[in-house]
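Most newcomers find our protein records easier to grasp once they have seen one. A learned vocabulary of local backbone shapes supplies the integers on the structure line. Here is such a record, shown just as it appears in the course material:
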Amino acid sequence: MRIILLGPPGAGKGTYASRLTVILGIPHISTGDIVREEIKAQTKLGNEIKEYSDKGELVPDDIIIKLLARRLRKPCCEKGFILDGFPRTARQAEALDGISKVDLVINLNVPDKIIIQRLSNRLTCKKCGAIYNKLTLKPKKDTVCDECSSGLYQREDDKPKVIQERLDVYRKKTEPLVEWYKKKRLLKDVHCDDMMIPPEVVVEKIKVIIDASRKQGFPRNLTK
């Protein structure tokens, strides 16, 4: 089962994927995590990526696609995967078609006002990257990570003005993928119009869609 979680920044893709990976027994793959691991390992490619990062430039698609293809060839992905943060553009979607089949695309529909409120209250662990929210997912101790006891902070791109800019970029570059996957009959919408709905409720909605798709059979013939 090969699943893509599609949605704007702050829609909850990482939160839901981290829960679905346990339920479904398939890996949660974030291209952001892959890039960070490569840099940390100080490989030749990792050092090249770091040069782009240090300059504040986006890592070229060719490098991201190469890393993703290598990750999807690992044995743990034989039964499927959950992709979070990829594809972001039509070009990336075309490249993914050449790497792997896709069985289902979950499109998370969340109003901008909820996303801005959610992200502006988000806290991230400086060490392990765990994510919390001052309104909906509070740490046990203020500003301290439950997982590793390190400090929590607010990312610069989680401030309202920057969030709106990120949403504008998403609408322009990534949202067209909704129609792309609709034409392939792979896309299912999940709506979340209430910020206080627990993640487990949304995960259950996604699981219902996955179970229904399994019974109906994925339209594999429409993917490369």
User: Anything to note?
Assistant: The domain at 2-111+173-222 is CATH 3.40.50.300 (Rossmann fold). The longest helix spans residues 199-216. The chain is about 45% helix and 15% strand. The beta strands are 2-6, 28-30, 81-84, 104-109, 122-125, 131-133, 152-153, 187-191.
